[in-house]
Amino acid sequence: MIPDLRAIRRLYAIFFFALFLFFLTMMNGEDLQGYETDWLLALDPLTGLSVILTSGMLYSALAWSVLIVVLTLFFGRFFCSWICPLGILNQFTGYLFSFLRPKEDYARNRYRSYFSLKYYILLSLLVLSLFGALQIGLFDPLALITRSFILGIFPALQQWNLPLGTSQMLVHGGVGLALIFIALILANRFIPRFWCRTLCPLGALLGVLSWRAPFRIRRNVDRCTDCMACMRHCQGACDPQGELRISECHVCLNCIRECPHDALHFGLPGEKSSIHAPIDVSRRRLVETTVAAALFHPMLSSADSSRTEPLPGVIRPPGSLPESDFLARCIKCGACMKVCPTHVLQPALLESGIEGVWTPILIPKLGYCEHHCVLCGQVCPTAAIRPISVAEKVGVGGFKTPVKLGTAFYDRGRCLPWAMQTECIVCEEMCPTSPKAIWYQKKKVVDREGQVKVLKQPFVDPELCIGCGICENKCPVQDLPAIRVSSVGESRSKDNQMILRSGR
């Protein structure tokens, strides 16, 4: 009697997906105590390899990805069906759409030549990483599903007052992220596991690693009658009835359970085991992809972006590396944005250029950097935001200066005391530094009725301002605040500084 391996795998898949959702929903300030929220991202060998190529080192948290590499070398591409939450979700939605007749299922689960596209995507991303441009996060399935749930799905579900572990979140460009994710899921209606079979670079990397795996699906050619039953529920479209494409096999084990003649097994080869097909890639296409990616990099680097020059709206989280190093580490996963208690961290669109799309920036109109909060650095899986202590952030306990994110500037044409002769000191009251970076001078003014009044007109001390953005967030001038923060003066950059500073 063959054990129901498919049922066992489903239980494992449900467990890992539920675990993924649990940690994702519990990623907030209170629940971080005692939990490692980036555990799944730390298992990602594609992220680990890309970070090595861009920065020349492997961040310690990503060392766990070596375990996945070793297991894949022996047991094949099991990660895709047993652990990957995006793969599990694709499989589940594909199951919901599986209302076709067996003949149609066989046709949908045959291998197609365009499934090799993922290998060329993988190669182009790795070539860009080699030149220092980390764009893995655009296609990496773990970063993609984490980003999509955090910035697209959860904020929408919160409209129904569901308890998702955080307060209501407004997302900069969240609709676009949600639509991309929904489109990828709905593609399963036409091609089961379309993302996994066609576009996934992590799946391609695992497929390459599994090519010589000793433990794999084996077909006994004497017992096989070419009944095609194995193809109906094949998740990888790996042609188990023929020269099985081991690089495409997701180790879902469906074929073993479906085979009526016990012609398939998972393990070492037997005397009658069939041969396996090689990876379906063209050497000419590989060379063309490499050349195209290499030529694209200088175009990317020469564009006007936060890498080439400081930009006022590109305010990075506290502890962020210098911009070039930051872009070489950030995988755009959105984990930092989920734990931010005020939701000031938002995905960039084109504020930092094409290379910085979906990387975290501060948008003070939507929140502010809490003075004693350092959660973003604790959950960053690649140390693009390095973990810092509260003492380092605020500049106490041996740290001479606080971490500066930028500097606030007044627009006196919109400031109520300066332009409207209206009393207001909200910004000064909210300023968290000690002594306060915002101070005021009392000035007598005469209104249009000839009445004399005393106003407190505010100023910013650039030496004390840390660029937290609370003044901009709380400014009563709602549409375009009278005080706004820009990135100049940030601690992480030696170049993005004001020329004139006191004491010089």
What would your notes on this structure say?
Helix 7 (117-130) crosses helix 11, helix 7 (117-130) packs across helix 13 (283-302) and helix 8 packs across helix 9 (174-186). Residues 29-37 have low confidence and may be disordered. The chain has a two-stranded antiparallel ribbon. Strands 3-4 form a two-stranded antiparallel sheet. A two-stranded antiparallel sheet has the order 5-8. The protein is mainly alpha-helical and 504 residues long. Helices cover 37% and strands 8% of the residues. The longest helix is centred in the N-terminal third of the chain and has 21 residues, at 5-25. The chain contains 20 helices and 8 strands. The protein folds into 3 domains: 5-267, no CATH class; 323-394, Alpha-Beta Plaits; 407-486, Alpha-Beta Plaits.
